[in-house]
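Translate sequence into structure tokens.
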Amino acid sequence: MEIGIPKETKDLEFRVGLSPSSVRVLKENGHKIFVETQAGNGAGFTDDDYQNAGAKIVPTTEAAWERDLIIKVKEPLVNEYKYLQKEQILFTYLHLAADRKLTEHLIDCGVTAIAYETVEQPGANKLPLLTPMSIIAGRLSVQFGARFLERQQGGKGVLLGGVPGVRPGQVTILGGGVVGTEAAKIAVGMGAAVQILDVNVERLAYLETLFGSRVELIYSNSAHIETSVKAADLVIGAVLVTGRRAPILVSRELVKQMCPGSVIVDVAVDQGGCIETLRPTSHTNPTYIEEGVVHYGVPNMPGAVPWTATQALNNSTLPYVIQLANQGMEALENNPPLAKGLNVNNHCLIHPAVQQVFPDLVN
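Result follows.
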């Protein structure tokens, strides 16, 4: 099969769909890989690295897209819509619940679109292709939050770890899944006072085995969210509902009650976000101030660490890519978790969760 690796076009997105080591494995399986020139530069992979692994370097974006299977990191942007075509398989993050325009175009053009974030193994929320980026985003959320709490960045001037005689910063994490857990690890390591709110009591019990008394574990309801958010220096949105928009947990009225200069980082922004006042931003312009609070809403946070993120993502995606390359659409019949990643096929919206978001687009 011919596999195309275009260069990512999202703002300051330096990750790449396949690393040279993944290309080598696919080449050993008998496939032809076409990599757009400089596609891996931002992640530390040169054209020579890809050529040495067996790929062919192509000079244009179009030449990379004219293939049977397209492997990307982020969803196609409007300027890439023209490259999508019928009988082509697209394997990437899509997050369609937050993007009606892309959903409509994928249906119209007839491409087969498989989303990393909805590939699901048996068990509760086992999302193998979302997890590595969730780990990275969770850890980065506290790093970025600490940075934007600095006065020069518009924050209130709080050091998360505090110092002897001065209280540490208060970090409130909404959601105790992978993102929330990883955020808590970094916040605890920095010496912050940390709270995690979650509606799953069993998850809270598990988190107690990880953190003991170092993290305050609170059942999530509107009253507890209000109390915790108002007192927080840094609020991290870490809510995930597979394939659907994240629920709004923090209203504008509640944001108004936060201390000026506090910071909100919403990792759920690529699924619509769980903070009413938060909108998507970019690595170029990552923050804005609304209701006196610094808002950070970059939807591709792991793109800030592309060397780490590309390899972590490939470690998880490569087995599925090999199956798709070897078997084509039959791979979905042979691999139920991969089949759950199918969002759009043959002009039809397939994934049940996305169908619930856009019922009028269901045939």
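Note: Residues 306-327 form the longest helix (22 residues).
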